[in-house]
Every structure is written in structure tokens, then in C-alpha cells.
Amino acid sequence: MTALAERPARTPPRAERARTRPGAAVLLGLGLAVLLAFGVLVSAANGAFAIAPGEILSSIGHRLWLGGEPVAGTGESVLWNIRFPRIVLGVLVGACLACAGALMQGMFGNPLAEPGVIGVSSGAAVGAVCAIAFGLTFAGNWTIPVCAFLAGLATVAIVYLLSRSGGRTEVVTLVLTGVAVNGLAGALIGVFIFYADNDEITAITFWQMGSLSQATWPKILAVAPLAALGLAAAPFFARRLDLLALGERPARHLGVDVERMRLQLIVIVALLTGAAVAVSGVIGFIGLVVPHLVRMVAGPGHRTLLPLSAAGGAAVIVWADLAARTVAAPAEVPLGILTALVGSPFFFWLLRRTRRRQGGWA
Predict the structure, then answer these.
(1) Cβ-based burial of 272 (10 A; exposed 0-12, middle 13-18, buried ≥19)
(2) What is the DSSP code string of 9-69?
(3) Dihedral Cα 216, 218, 219, 224, nearest 10 deg
(4) pLDDT above 90 covers what percent of the chain?
(5) In sequence order, which ranges of the chain are alpha helices (DSSP H)?
(6) What pLDDT does residue 362 have?
(7) Helix (H, G, I), strand (E, B) or coil at 270
(8) Per-residue confidence at 358, pLDDT binned at 50, 70, 90?
(9) What are the backbone angles phi and psi of residue 164, rounded to the nearest 5°?
(10) Left if phi > 0, otherwise alpha if psi is -120 to 50, otherwise beta: which for 275?
């Protein structure tokens, strides 16, 4: 995090200034599409109740009035009421987190940025933990997601207002304010846990680790409009983010209203991350790892980086959730633990690589 705050002028190295590689982008897009489709099929087939891939395709055809037969016995209910909701929610959550990460990295001009930098995840966690610890039920089963989403948006608003001065928002001030708010959020979560009973502590701990085990079609219908809005709005900023990579002053000379764009991007990132965290808990490193891997293959152009990151995030979450369900069956490993186990070593490697290419942070 300190690296983000101390980075000097935003002058990307020659590799980052390279133009997008269209051929690589097309191949990567096809590869991600195949990886995602195969992951959906494998995830739907595997679990405590095994379902043959052919039966899954037949059931899908039956639901779409294209022929085929439903899965025999309880398999149809398991497929459509348990596994497909979980898979679809994973696709939405992964796409939201990865796209938000790509936007954050473009806005800060730093590959080490991710949605948690401005406190969205920690703020949403405070809202959810507060609802659990105090037993709030004003919205029924929706109380925890509603509290998480509203708290995430409120946290972003606080961070933005505190970092704004003289009609402008400096990136360094925004990052440092986010660090302070993240620390305060962690302290508040600790206070709530201190006063919670054993059952509430179990629920809080599992929620903080991230999971898709509570996926239902109503939750998907609730988060899908927010995810669709954020994912649809993101590509409209692609050209301006490419210009911003040249530096704030050149971007302004080329007609980019940097301050206005930064505010709009913060709102979109808050929308995407808040919606994802509200239904899945805290799942880290997706917004950091996926956009950077896509950038390494397809280049830094945001016209391809944003949609490919969304597709990559969806594929990663689907496969990671499959591993979470099966690696320690019949127990389930929290999804956030698996992403952290893979993401943390990658973050260390990325930190050292970026520092070496920049010649140090000082």
C-alpha cells in the first residue's frame, strides 16, 4: 500500500506504453470463453451429488424448449436450485471484482491498485458484521446484503470527501485516506466481534472469508442490475483511461476532465465492489491479479483490458469455487482463503517486479 502512495509521477515504462496486441487479445478472449464455459460445466457436474455433463446439457435444452430431458430424481432440483445459482453468482462476483480492479489500476496508474484501496470492501464488511452482531432483521434475509452495500457506498463517500481539497482530489491523499479508513474499519469489526456471541462470531468469520454458499436466484436478481450497470458503464471510460496513462497534465491538455472522471470511476468501482461483497463476503486479490495477468498478455489498452478482465475474473471465481467445494469435501473451504493463498504470492512477485522496473520507490 505504501508503494501506491509513494509512487512518483505516472510515467509508464515502455512496456506499459505499448499498444494493445489485437491478435493476443482475440486469442485470450477465446481462451477465457472456453475456460469459463468448461468451468461452468465441470462445476455443475461435480459435488456431493454427481451429474453427468450430458445430463446437464440435456436439462439446459429442456429448460430452453430446445429438446432434451430433465435430470432424473433430485438431480434437477440440485442443478437448478443449488449449483446454477452458485455458478451464476460466481460469474457476476468475479466479473465485478476484476473489472473494478482494472478501473482502479487505470485510475491510479499503478498495477498494485485494487478495489480495497478506497475502503469499499472493508466498509461493506463493517456493515455486514454490524448487522450480524446486533441481530438486525429489518429487511428479512436481505438485511446483511443491504447493510453491506450501503456501508460500502458510505465508506467511499467518506473517503472521497476527506481526500478532496480545493476542488481537487490528489491520488496520494485518496490512497492514504483509504488506508486510514481500512484501519478504522478493521478496528470496528474487532469491536463487534468482541461483543458478539459464539454463533454470531462463526457467522462473521465465515462471511469475512468469502463464500458463495448462500447463493439463491433472488440474490442474483438483486445484484444483477447493479453488476450490469457497472460493467456496461466501464467501457465508456476506456479511451480516457488510456489518455490518463500519459499523466494527468497531458490528459487535461487532450480534453480529459480528470477530476470528474475520477469521481465517476470511484462511483462505478463502489457500485461493482459493493454489490459483489454484499452477496459473497470479502474475496481478495481477484481485482489485483486478474487485470494484471490480462495486461501482460493483451497489452494495456483499456478497450480490451476491461472486458477481458471481467471474463477472466468470472472464470477464476468459477474454478476457485469448484476447488473450495471439492478440495476438502464434504467440508467447504472459504473461497476467500483460496484466492488469498494464490493471490498473496503473486502480489509479492508483482511488488518486486514493479519495484525493479521502476528502479526503486524512492
Answers:
(1) buried
(2) S----HHHHSPP-HHHHHHHHHHHHHHHHHHHHHHHH-SSS---HHHHHHHHHHHTTSS--
(3) 120
(4) 32
(5) 2-6, 14-17, 22-45, 53-63, 75-78, 84-108, 120-133, 143-163, 171-195, 198-209, 217-233, 238-244, 248-253, 258-280, 286-298, 302-326, 335-358
(6) 43
(7) helix
(8) low
(9) -90, 135
(10) alpha
10 Å CB burial of residue 76 (0-12, 13-18, 19+) is middle
Q: In what helix (H) or strand (E) does residue 165 lie, and over which residues does it extend?
A: strand 164-165
CA nearest neighbour of 350 among 270, 263, 292, 272: 292
In b/e form, how buried is each residue of 9-46, taking b as 16+ CB within 10 angstroms?
ebebeeeeeeebbeeebeebbeebeebbeebbeebbbb
**Under 8 Å CB-to-CB from 217, ≥6 apart: which residues?**
81, 85
Calpha distance 42→274 (Å, rounded)? 29
At 215-250, the pLDDT tens digits run 999 889 888 888 999 999 999 999 999 999 888 888
Q: Which three cell numbers stand for residue 205?
A: 468469520
Of 144, 77, 157, 185, nearest in space to 280 by CA = 144
* Integer Cα distance of 260 and 283 in angstroms: 29
Bond before 22 cis per omega within 30 degrees: no
β-strands 164-165, 168-169: how paired? antiparallel
The pTM of this model reads 0.86
Alpha-carbon span 295 to 25, nearest angstrom? 9
Helix (H, G, I), strand (E, B) or coil at 164: strand
- Say how far apart CA 244 and CA 63 lie, in whole Å: 46
Domains observed in the chain: 2-7+44-358 (1.10.3470.10)
